[in-house]
Amino acid sequence: MGSFTTFQTFNDPGLASAIADKLTEQRIDCLVEKVEPLLEPSFFRNTVEPNIHLKVRATDLDRAHEALEEYYEHQLQDVDPGYYLFAFTDPELLDIMAKPDEWGHFDYVLARELLAERGLPIPEETIRQMKQQRIRQLAQRARVESFRELLRRVFRLGRP
Asked: What does the alpha-carbon distance between residue 2 and residue 6 come to, in Å, rounded to a whole number?
């Protein structure tokens, strides 16, 4: 059927469960797991590292993203007028559109709506191209980071 992969990470198990419920309503199999950190959190003084993982089948990742975007589209009329994205400039909102993985589904949907309200609607084809470009950027970054890690290991092995 396909293995599960991390879709989103959370600090709040209640929020993870609520998102899981939304996905389940769309008939997307998912599970919520608490993942223990590799090192003791107090060692790095980082007690807020996301350790709740919402997982979906790898084959359902696109459907899960679409389901959450659709859900948040219906929530836009309830946004607090003081929400911080309302103060963003058009270039800042476009940055959210270009890097949705750094912002989250709600901010992505709201940024798209705000741009449309400001007379800058983004066509579906452009959004598809932006997502493909971002995937290429992330893949390139992963390759560079893997290469750096390989170099670190090689040079560490050569030390007395």
From this structure: 13
Instruction: Give the predicted TM-score (pTM) of the model.
Output: 0.71
Task: State how far the Cα of 80 lies from the Cα of 88, in Å rounded to an integer.
Answer: 15
The first and second tokens of residue 111, run together, are 């940024």
pLDDT of residue 37: 66
Q: Which strands sit side by side in the sheet containing 4-10, from one edge to the other?
A: 4-10, 52-57, 30-34
Joined tokens for residue 9: 């990470």
Q: Is the pLDDT of residue 10 over 90?
A: no
First-to-final CA distance of the chain: 48
DSSP string covering the chain, please?
---EEEEEEES-HHHHHHHHHHHHHTT--EEEEE---SS-GGGTT------EEEEEEGGGHHHHHHHHHHHHHTTGGG--TT-GGGG--HHHHHHHHH-GGGT-HHHHHHHHHHHHHTT----HHHHHHHHHHHHHHHHHHHHHHHHHHHHHHHHHHT--
